[in-house]
Amino acid sequence: xxxxxxxxxxxxxxxxxxxGAKNAALPILCAALLAETPLHxxxxxxxxxxxxxxxxxxxxxxxVNRDGDKVSLDASIxxxxxxxxxxxKTMRASILVLGPLLSRFGQARVSLPGGCAIGSRPVDLHIKxxxxxxxxxxxxxxxxxxxxxxxxxxxxxxxxxxMDLVTVTGTENLMMAATLAQGTTVLENAAKEPEVVDMAECxxxxxxxxxxxxTDVITIIxxxxxxxxxxxxxxxxxxxxxxxxxxxxxxxxxxxLNVQPKLLDAVIEKLRDAGATVSCETDSITxxxxxxxxxxxxxxxxxxxxxxxxxxxxxxxxxxxxxxSKVTETIFENRFMHVQEMQRLGADIDIEGNTALxxxxxxxxxxxxxxxxxxxxxxxxLAGLVARGETVIERIYHLxxxxxxxxxxxxxxxxxxxxVT
Length: 421
Ligand code: EPZ
Description:
The chain is an alpha/beta fold. Helices cover 32% and strands 25% of the residues. It has helices at 22-31, 48-60, 85-88, 98-105, 124-132, 168-179, 194-205, 237-250, 265-274, 311-319, 337-344, 374-386, 397-402, 406-412; strands spanning 3-7, 12-17, 39-42, 63-67, 70-74, 82-83, 107-111, 136-140, 143-147, 160-162, 184-188, 209-211, 217-221, 230-232, 252-257, 277-281, 284-289, 298-299, 324-328, 348-352, 355-359, 368-370, 390-394, 417-420. A hairpin with a 2-residue loop joins strand 20 (348-352) and strand 21.
C-alpha cells in the first residue's frame, strides 16, 4: 500500500495546470455506449477511476484507444450488457452504464453499488426514473435487472419525472436514458452541477436534443440514434479548489491554469472571506495568501451552493484559521471521516450531528494518519503541508482515484511530498 510522507512548512509558489474533471469524464465515457460511431474525447484525466471505467466498457465490447489525455471509444458492437459486481464494488460510478445500456439495447444487468465510506448512497432515484420511462426493473442477487422488451418498439418512453432529491449521477443516468427514448422526457429538480452541463453538451454534439441543462428542469426529446463526436472534458473545479485551499493555508502565490472561475463562485467567495486574495482571468485563477487566515462557516448544498466535495478541504483550512467555525454537511450522512484523523494532527474539532465545530489552533503537529475517502485524503494532504514536522498519510489509493499527479504538482510548487510504495 502506497503512502505519502510530507514535510510541512513550505510556502507554495508557481503555476499548476488543472486536469479534466473526473466527475465529467466518468459519465461522458459511459455515454459512449449510446453512440454507433466513435466518440473522441480530450482532457480525460489519468485517474484510477477513469481506468476502471475504461476497463468496464472494454469488457462490454467497446474498443478504446487511449493516448495521454485523448481517449477514443467505439461502441458500434457491444456483446455484453452487464456491469459485474467485482467492477462496480471498486467504483460506484459504474452505475452510469445503466441508462445508456437500457436506452440503446433495451436491457442491462448492473450490480447494485455497495455503500462507501461517506454514506449508504442508494440509487433508488436512478431506478424510479427509469421505471417512470417504462423500464421493467427488479433486483436479484444484488443485481439490477432491467428490460424494455415489453414496451412499444422495445424502447424507453419519454416521461415527466420529479427527483425528490438532487442527484448528480441520477440526473446524468436519466438524461442519457432519455436521449434514445420515444418521445419527450422532462427531468424536474435536476442537478445543476457543471459536470451535468458538460455531459449535456457532449450528448448534444452526438445528436441528442437536450435543453435546460444547468437549470433544475431538463427537457430531452428522444431521437433514433446517436453518433460519435469530439468533446473536450471540462476542467476539474474540485481539483482546482483543492490547490486554491492549499496555497491559502501554506501562504504564497499560485496561478491555476485551464480553470474557469465561473465554476467556483462559492469556493472563491469563501477563500476571500478567509482572507486570501483571489484574482480571476478567463481561464486562470491566481491565489495569494500570507497564511494567516480567518475561520469561515461552511454549509454544503447542491450547485451553485458550496460543493460537498470541498467540505473536507475547508475543514483543514479552518483547523489553523483564527477563530471558531461551523462546517455543516447536508449532502452525505457520513462525510466527517477526516475529522478524527485531523484530531491526530492536533486539530480542535467537535462533531454535533451533521455539523463540525472547529476551533482554530496555532499549529498542527505532523503524525501518521489514514485516508478514508477521496476528498478526506486530500484534506489530510493539506493539513500535512502546514503541520510542523513530518506527516505520513496511509491508504493513499483513495487519492489516486481523483487527483492526477498530486505529489508532482505539489512539489513543483515547492512542497515536500514523497510517495513511498
Ligand atoms: C456525485 O456523486 C459525485 N460523483 C460525488 O463526487 C459528489 O460528492 C456528489 O455527486 C454530490 O455532488 C460523481 O459524479 C461520479 P448524488 P452521486 O447522487 O451522484 C442521495 C467525489 O469526491 N441519493 O448527487 O453519487 C445520496 O445518498 C465524489 O468526486 C439518493 O438517496 O451523488 C446523497 O445523500 C464523492 N438516492 C445525495 O442524494 C439516489 O438514487 C446526493 O447524491 C441518488 C442519490
